[in-house]
Amino acid sequence: MTAIYLIGLREGLEISLVISILVAFLVKSDRRPLLRLVWAGVAVAAVISVGFAALLQVGIARLSSTHQELFEAIASFVAVAFVTWMIFWMRRMARHIGRELRGRMEDAIAVGPVAVAAVAFLAVIREGLETSILFYAAAQGATDAKPLIGISLGLLTAVVLGWLLYISAVRINLSTFFTWTGALLVLVAAGIFKYGFHDLQESNVLGGLDKLAFDVTPSFPPTAWYAELLRGMVNFTPAPTVVETIAWLAYGIPVLVLFLWPARKPAPTPATTAS
């Protein structure tokens, strides 16, 4: 639930930030009549994202057990690819996303109403579909409503933060926020990556299901709160296979190091000297 809450918060804040930038741009430029087009694009994107999430759940339920495991493995790897691309993209764009979105909206206004709605739709649909895939991948194996509660609370928190940012009631350093949540999401993605390999083993695509890397079950009983927290955040299991452990380390360590590595600043342009 904690990991899924983080996914909802991170993705939801990106969506809220995008919408608030577009709305603020139209309000400040005295183009309030165009707001209905923005909300129409947002609404269509939200409906498609929710429908896609429902389609995933219904469609997978009809597959055989082996095919379910195989599909869940593929979904896990797709989710990891989305997360990896997203966190590095946001790290690069956090400072310039407002300028980029305003430029797109200005160009869309010149084209026409459909283009205005399309800008809002395209800005939200990418995050919406990512959220659906991430939610499905992170909620695999859940038998209660905790994943749904977690994603709902995360999105609700993001909406509140987005609204407060819009009215300037709070000001947070978005670069810092996305750095910390991005680092946590790398650990979440490492757990999803590990789970994907477990699914491949369950579907008999890979062997080694009976070869454990270690077993610390006595110290981390499944009912303990700390074991549940670790399982939710980084997909920690007290008795992982060798393949799962290698997968977690192979993704988590290098990606986390690359993400936290200071971005290279452009070299200053040397001053020209008069001859």
From TrEMBL:
Parts of the chain that traverse the membrane: 6-27, 34-58, 70-88, 108-125, 145-165, 177-197, 245-263
InterPro entries cross-referenced by the UniProt entry: FTR1/Fip1/EfeU
Keyword Transmembrane helix: yes
GO cellular component: high-affinity iron permease complex
Keyword Glycoprotein: no
UniProt main location, coarse: membrane
Topology with respect to the bilayer: Multi-pass membrane protein
Subcellular localization(s) per the UniProt record: Membrane
GO molecular function: ferrous iron transmembrane transporter activity
Listed PANTHER family: IRON TRANSPORTER FTH1, PLASMA MEMBRANE IRON PERMEASE
Protein name: Iron transporter
Lineage, highest ranks first: Bacteria, Bacillati, Actinomycetota, Actinomycetes, Micromonosporales
